[in-house]
Amino acid sequence: MADSVGQPDVDTAVVDTQTARQPDIQTCKFNSTGSSILATTQSGFLIYGLDRDGSVSLQHEYDVGTDIKFAERLYSTNLVAYCTYKNPDVFVVFHCKRRKIVCDFRYPSEITIIRFNRQRVIIAVKDVIYIHNVRNMQILHLIKDVAENPRNMMELACSESCGYVAFPWKAGTGAVRIFDVFQLQDISCIPAHQSPLALARFDPTGTRIATSSVKGTCIRVFDSSHGHKLYEFRRGFKEVKIASLSSSVAPFNKILQYLLQ
Length: 261
Fold this sequence. Notes:
Layout: H1 10-13, E1 25-30, E2 36-41, E3 44-50, E4 56-63, E5 68-73, E6 79-84, E7 90-95, E8 100-106, E9 113-116, E10 120-124, E11 129-133, E12 139-143, E13 155-156, E14 164-168, E15 174-180, E16 185-193, E17 197-202, E18 208-213, E19 218-223, E20 229-234, E21 242-247, E22 256-260
C-alpha cells in the first residue's frame, strides 16, 4: 500500500513571507477547533492563526510545487494532510514544523474525500472507504461497495468520544448511513429525505445529525444512533441549494445555521 512520492526540498518548500507575492488562494477551511484557517493555493498551502482578539496572523506557508486538490489540518497540530491534482491517488501527511513529509500512501483510484479526527483517518476512493489508525496509518477496516457519491458528501463527528461518519446509503436516495469508525461497525441507516441527500452535519457531540436534500426545502435533525427524527425546520417551498450547515455548541433546536447558494 505504501508508495513514496518523494519529499520536497526544504529550501524550496518554505516561502519567505516578507518577499513573496500575494498568494492566489483557491480554497479556505477552518480546522476542527476553529482556531486556524488552512488555505490552498495554486502551488501549496498557508495556515493562518486566529487570535482571541480577532487578529489573523500567517503561521506557515509552503510550496509543494503543484496544485493542491484538497487539504485538511489535524486540529491545531503541525500535521496537514493533502492530495494534489498531479497525484490524485496519493495521500500525503506533511509536518509543518519539521518541514517534511511524514508519510504517503497510494490508493487504487483517485481520492475523493479526506477526513480525520484524533484517532482515525478516513480516505474515500471510488467505491471503498479506508479507515486508518491516525498514529501509524495502519488500515483498520475497509467499507466496501460504497454507493456512488457525486457530491463527495461525508461527515465525520469531531467529538473525541464519538466516532460516527455519515455518507449516502444508496445513490440517488435521501438515506444516510452512519458508521462507527471507533467500533468499526454500522450504527444506523436513516431515511432522511425523499430527494437525493445533499448535506449532513453532526452536532459537536456527534449524537445528532442535521440533513438536507438537493431540494433544500427543509432541514431535519435526527438522533444519530437510532435514526429517530427529532426536529424539522422548513424554510419554504422554493427549491434552493443549501451550500453548508453548521451548529454551535448549543443543541440543534436552539441554534442551527445554514447558508443558501
